[in-house]
Amino acid sequence: MEDITAYHESGHAFTAMALGAIVHSLSIDPDWDDGPERYGDVEIEWQRGEYNRKEFFEKRVLVALGGPVAEMIYTGDPFHPAIVPEWKVDWENAWQNAAQLQTSKQKRMTYLEQKSIELHRILSRTENWSALAVIADHLLAHEILEREHLEDILSDWDGAMR
């Protein structure tokens, strides 16, 4: 189970970094004293003013879906992100951010499904999956990764999420 969590959290972190966010840390051993029970945690910072409103919410949607999509790729299970109980917080986060882009619930669902498929295709590319897997391997070895370690891990990656 720890390996699945590592890939899930690495999916959030990799997606955030690829989209220009700063990832301060990620963990598969989070503190449970400051909120709901969870098995992993990622601390992400977006630079205000660098993106227009639409880009900002699109990026947040993709990061929210990054964990579930990475987990789907890792396990080979093609689940819908809305139906897996462990992904409830991620789905709610994606749903709320998508609400800023799509007010109709039907259009929002379609939008999120399209983004999940698009992200699955992007993260599955060899160069992206290799980088994400390296993050997961380091996370399994250390349980917590800080910003400098993440940046060092990805120093050879070209930074493009095509």
From TrEMBL:
Coiled-coil residue windows: none
Taxonomy of origin reads:
Bacteria, Pseudomonadati, Planctomycetota, Planctomycetia, Planctomycetales
Q: Which UniProt keywords apply?
A: Hydrolase, Metalloprotease, Protease
Query: Gene3D superfamilies, alphabetically?
Result: Peptidase M41
List the Gene Ontology MF annotations in alphabetical order: ATP binding; ATP-dependent peptidase activity; metalloendopeptidase activity
Q: Which gene encodes it?
A: ftsH_2
Q: Name one GO biological process term.
A: proteolysis
Source organism superkingdom: Bacteria
Q: What is this protein called?
A: ATP-dependent zinc metalloprotease FtsH
